[in-house]
Amino acid sequence: MVESRWFRRAGPGIVAVGAVVLVATATLAARDRPSAPPTCAGQAGRGGTSGAWYRIAPRVEAGERRGQTLWVGRPGGSAPRVLDLDPESFASGPFDGRVLVGTDDGTASRLSLLDAADGCAWPIAVSADVIRRATLTPSGDSVVEFRVDRRTRRDLGVWERSLRPGAGATQLLPPIAADGRFGVTWSTELQWSVDGRVLAVQSCGEVACRSRLLDTASGHVHELADPALGAIVGVDRDRVVAFEACRGFPCPLDLIDLTAGSRTNVDPLAGEAVVATDERGRRWAVYDQLDGGLRSVALDDRTVRDLMPEADARRRLLGTPTRSGVGADLPPGWVLVASGDTHEPIGSSAPDARRVSDGRIVHFDEVPR
Amino acid sequence: MSVQHPRPRAVAFLAGVLSALLTAVPAAAHGPDPVLGGSLWPQNQRLEFRWRSGAVPPAAIRTAILDAAADVGATRGSKAATYAYDPAGANPIGYGTGATCGVNGLACFSRSAPTGFFMWFREQGHVFDWGSLKWCQMYTTAPTGCYDAETIALDELGHVEILDHHVNYTDDSDYEDAVVQTFSRTKPRDGWNMHGFGRCDVATLQREYDVLSWTTPYSTCLDVDTVLTLAASPSSIPYDSTTTLTATLRTVSRVAYERLGGNPVAGRVVRLQRRPVGTTSWVALGTMTAAAPGSYAFAIRLTRSSEFRAVFTTPPDEGLNGSVSPTVTVVVAACTSSCPLLLGR
Q: What is the C-alpha separation between B126 and A186, in angstroms, rounded?
């Protein structure tokens, strides 16, 4: 696979003023330091060309994480662009063709928004605190960040930062209170509901997760703190699809009705799962089954559709971006599938996509947009 | 680790009602590990694993995983699956790149018994909210705060068998009763380097897969009732003749015992007691001799009718409850020739 490295080789320490510094520093000491992508013109935010995809994966040398590699691609057959990140780094999106990237070199965290089409990036923020995760708001005019203290790794809460030049950050949610049922927080993830109204801030212990569901319109926070629950798969208004607290698959998949305060089991033996919207706007929990098939369950009336039984047993569903490390702009009615049993696309190539209505599989580039 | 800060006024806090409604009733503390959903492997299934291409663990972690596989064989106490490395094995174990573990945890697995499984381990240096992962095996001298890869691998292999996380006492005083735990411990906390299944792991493996042999000790995390029967052959004998008493020791056949119900219990100590007909005090005769699996025999020469019972005392080192057989009477005919002279009677 030919890759288009975003970064040319350059002399050590040479980083143009104003360029977007995203690359690993000390961890890449043995390599020539790559240069940064050029800075995009105009205002950062949404508004790019939809259809981007990304994949982020650790770069392991001699058994140890030395950094992460980010591949960003778009339809049209061009080779994906490649970015080397620090060991502590992340990506989220895509947001209309743009990928939000954070990387921390041990002294500062830097946020940038990459444009998949133009190969440029907007610098968003530099923070002395560690920005562990970030996402763009549905309106595209601000970024939501989760931070920890650099020295103590103490939770510093969730912050919102406008993309307007010079704007500061305000705290959106405080640090989550300690709860022995969940133990130390291993990972905090930010996820928007399907309609973009609710921000789910998920704090996972070693196995179980709790979530704060912030209604951005009203400011109300629903706290979901059930140690029987694991990672959230998706949020649709007052319904949450989540795994139970498992360390692997199969894992029970549950549907939680926040209004009724009820939790019902969708499938006791589910594999990877996502929440998808079909062409008519109906929301479905889509998940792998043990026999290799893919099942969809409507969130409104629990209608069940078995899409792809035995014939494509190896075409596994790719889970949410935080689980799979893969994110993509897809039109309604499509989900990402891996090319094999590893739950990941082949190398750095684009993932395949599968239409929920009839199970048709196409390459990412061929998804009708 | 988290510190609670006052929440901004703009955020209305509705915690409590929902969490109370949604909080599951906690399972009873302590006991055999719960089980995961899905099927069991066939008894004594040999599961061959290989290193996943492109995601091969470093040598130190490979050694730890191999050691954990050996730990399973040495400590399963049951007919649970065993694990063996084979370069052509059907079940890949990967490390780091491409791991599908989600956002948390040290390792993860996928099991689809009886077809196969796969497993992933996080890479050294994987960064969590709390900091960077350290595997003890990656150091010449394991530092404080590292995770023991052999222990974690054993935990994962236990999951692949069927084990879910052990439910501990509130104070975690029973943590070392299971290696399959919700919360992993780092060096030097108690239980950070368990290299064998704990008794409550074994209990569930025994219940689901059966004991390895009829002489295998039952895990002390179990509480299995036994039933002891006794028969005399013949039950009527001439004066001064021999009869053989045979006891049979089994576990009670009970649905909750799953595969353990009705098992012969062999290699234990079963004692025979006797009392003359018409008396009330039992007198110990001795230990019965093991015969067929679960059978214990004792031959005795009798000159008078007697009652017998077999006794299996609750052993201190396994999870079986003692039992006493019903009384068996052996009738001895009157002496008809060369009878002893009874004085003082």
A: 11
Distance of CA A233 to the CA centre of its chain: 11
Note the pLDDT of residue B244. 98
**Single-letter amino acid, residue A179:** D
Separation between Cα atoms, residue A9 and residue A20, nearest integer Å: 15
Cα–Cα distance for residue pair B154/B71, rounded to 1 Å: 7
Q: Which residues pair with B310 in a beta bridge?
A: B272
Give the Cβ contact number of residue A144 at 10 Å: 24
- With cut-offs at 50, 70 and 90, classify the pLDDT of residue B337: confident
Answer for the pair A171, A159: CB distance below 8 angstroms, yes or no.
yes
Compute the CA torsion angle B195, B196, B199, B200 (nearest 10 deg): 80
A100 vs B4: CA distance, rounded Å: 28
Q: In this structure, what token pair is assigned to residue B227?
A: 């039933």
> Quick check: helix, strand or coil at residue B209?
helix
Chain B stretch 16-45, residues whose beta carbon is closer than 8 A to a beta carbon of chain A: 16-19, 21-24, 36-38
CA A108 distance to own-chain centroid? 22
Q: How much of chain B is in helix, strand and coil states, percent to nearest 5?
A: 15, 30, 55
Query: Residue A221 and residue B12: Cβ atoms within 8 Å?
Result: yes
Place of tokens 């001064």: B240
User: How far from chain centre, in Å, is Cα A229?
Assistant: 20
Q: Do A290 and B22 touch (CB under 8 A)?
A: no
Residue A299 has pLDDT above 80, yes or no: yes
Spatial separation of the C-alpha atoms in residues A144 and A131, rounded to whole Å: 10
For B115-139, the DSSP string reads TEEEEEEPPBT-EETTEE--BGGGS
State the smallest CA–CA distance between residue B39 and chain A in angstroms. 10
- If one compares A116 and B161, the residue with the highest pLDDT of the two is B161
- Cα separation values, B301 from A124, B244, B278, B327, Å: 97, 9, 19, 18
Contact between chains at B97 and A60 (C-beta distance less than 8 A): yes
User: Which of B4, B97, B98 is facing A177, going by the closest CB pair?
Assistant: B4
Mean of the per-residue pLDDT values for chain A? 85
Place of tokens 């025994």: B206
Q: Which residues contact B56 (CB under 8 A, 6 or more apart)?
A: B62, B94, B95
Tell me the nearest-neighbour CA distance from A132 into chain B, angstroms: 7
Task: Label the pairing between strands A220-224 and B12-13.
Answer: parallel
Residue with the two structure tokens 């996820």? A191
User: What is the DSSP code (8-state) at residue B317?
Assistant: T
* Cα–Cα distance list, B67 to A346, B72, B84, B85, B194 (Å): 32, 9, 10, 11, 12
Chain B residue with minimal CA distance to A226?
Answer: B23
Complex-level ipTM? 0.89
Q: What does the block give as tokens for B128?
A: 């969590």
Beta-carbon contacts of B113 under 8 Å, excluding residues fewer than 6 positions away, are: B38, B39, B40, B41, B162
Question: Which residues 149-188 on chain B approach chain A with CB closer than 8 angstroms?
Answer: 156, 159, 165, 182-184
Closest CA to B183 of A245, A248, A205: A205
Contact call for residues A77 and A365 (beta carbons, < 8 A): yes
Average pLDDT over residues B15-40: 60
Contact B182, A208 (CB under 8 A): yes
What does the alpha-carbon distance between residue A21 and residue A7 come to, in Å, rounded to a whole number? 11
Check whether A241 has a pLDDT greater than 60: yes
Q: Is the peptide bond before A138 cis (omega within 30 degrees of 0)?
A: no
For residues A114 and A47, what is the distance between their CA atoms, to the nearest angstrom? 12
Stated length of chain A? 369
Closest chain A residue to the Cα of B110, Cα to Cα: A249
Whole-prediction pTM? 0.87
